[in-house]
């Protein structure tokens, strides 16, 4: 048996969570012990994962595949501008609610919203990982941000 400990900050922790999920998806987990350590802005989750020995190469390959996406180079200038507005809203909302930003929407989800200019709850629900609870809680706010962005862009063209 092997052990791996993950420290996942309460704020800005997407990459840490993705790394832990890669391990969890590639091994046979025996036990996971989790503990929240409250320390103001330095608060974090500690996860001790006990797992059966697996092919280390497979796990390392998965980690190397998990590279950060540069959304500025992937999205058009206009889409990236909307993406930044959505990220700014997400950050403010997460701070007010005292939750990690990724629990609202992931960067990939925000990029898809920006790229497709999602303007209805039906279309928002089609994005992978966006379920009824998120739509009910944040859907209208996200749609309004997209609509306001499009209105401002339209005014600037005229």
What are the SSEs and their pairings?
Elements: E1 2-9, H1 14-26, E2 29-37, E3 44-51, H2 56-65, H3 71-74, H4 77-97, H5 107-116, H6 121-125, H7 132-157
Antiparallel strand pairs: 1-3, 2-3
Structural features:
single chain, 158 residues, alpha+beta, Alpha-Beta Plaits, DNA polymerase, domain 1, three-stranded antiparallel sheet, 7 helices
Overall form: elongated
Determine the structural class based on helices, strands and strand pairing: alpha+beta
Average pLDDT reading: 86
Distance between the termini: 66 Å
Q: What's the CATH superfamily of the largest domain, by name?
A: HRDC domain
Strand adjacency order, main sheet = 1-3-2
Order of SSEs = EHEEHHHHHH
**What's the CATH class label of the largest domain?**
Mainly Alpha
Largest sheet: 3 strands, antiparallel
User: How many E strands?
Assistant: 3
Low-pLDDT residue intervals, each spanning 5 or more residues: none
Give the proportion of residues in helices: 55-70%
Please report the number of helical segments. 7
Q: Strand fraction band? A: 15-25%
Total of domains = 2
């Amino acid at each position: 048996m092997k052990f791996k400990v993950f420290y996942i900050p309460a704020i800005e922790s997407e990459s840490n969570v993705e790394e832990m999920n890669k391990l969890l998806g590639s091994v046979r987990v025996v036990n996971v012990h989790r503990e929240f350590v409250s320390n103001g802005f330095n608060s974090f989750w500690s996860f001790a994962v006990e797992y059966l020995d697996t092919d280390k190469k497979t796990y390392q390959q998965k980690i190397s595949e998990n590279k950060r996406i540069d959304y500025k180079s992937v999205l058009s200038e206009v889409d990236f501008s909307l993406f930044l507005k959505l990220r700014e809203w997400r950050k403010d909302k997460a701070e007010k609610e005292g939750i990690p930003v990724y629990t609202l929407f992931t960067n990939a989800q925000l990029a898809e919203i920006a790229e497709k200019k999602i303007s209805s709850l039906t279309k928002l629900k089609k994005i992978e990982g966006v379920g009824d609870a998120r739509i009910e809680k944040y859907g209208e706010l996200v749609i309004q941000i997209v609509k306001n962005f499009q209105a401002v862009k339209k005014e600037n063209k005229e």
